[in-house]
Amino acid sequence: MIDLYTWNTPNGRKISVALEEMGLPYKVHTVNISKNEQFEPAFLAISPNNRIPAIVDPDGPGGAPISVFESGAILLYLAEKTGKFMPADPRGKVAVTEWLMWQMGGFGPMPGQVHHFLMQPEGPARDYGFKRYHTETKRLYGVLEKRLAGRDFVATEGEPSIADFAILGWAWRHERHEVPFGDLPNVAAWYARMMARPATARGFEVALS
Ligand SMILES: N[C@@H](CCC(=O)N[C@@H](CS)C(=O)NCC(=O)O)C(=O)O
């Protein structure tokens, strides 16, 4: 049974979706980031950057326990452990890794800043921050829209990959970062396709807070 330390956020949801899709049993441990529980020493011991998500797998490499922090690293670890949602061939692996890194480097940090500036009091600082990060977030959605033309999944054919799980976690909050899907038909179709998967739906339904 994998221990999942998490909260009800886009980065947290990526991992509950992946664990459900992979059919791995797991136990949720909530880390209430609005109460600063991410700074508690026991959590920092497995997640030194004081951020969720993190996992502890009692049955890690060589049968010994392992902890993993950073959602992208967790997804790669789980894909390696199960042999699922990451192609075996090197070209397929490159494509999944590219889109996973695209998410980790941009399609997460940028909408995350939109969420931040939307919570600030009205004024020039809020307007500047919102405009800058909202523009970049919309650009990233445009990149995804182009990528999904004629494709069912972001980096693979036939079935999704961990890159889809990573991107979906943030697309799940598209209304909050104010990017409607009206002008993004390929993104809208992909989003509906992913959410129609029973295991993915369970990953969004499981209580994380
Ligand atoms: N790059 C990290 C980002 C994780 C992250 O930003 N987590 C947020 C919630 S979505 C968090 O724990 N924030 C707590 C804090 O900022 O102290 C990952 O993908 O795991």
UniProtKB/TrEMBL annotation:
UniProt xrefs under CDD domains: GST_N_Ure2p_like (cd03048)
GST C-terminal domain: residues covered: 89-209
Superkingdom field: Bacteria
Endpoints of the signal sequence: none
A UniProt-annotated Pfam family: GST_C
Domain GST N-terminal, residue spans: 1-86
Protein name: Glutathione S-transferase family protein
Annotated source species: Falsiroseomonas algicola
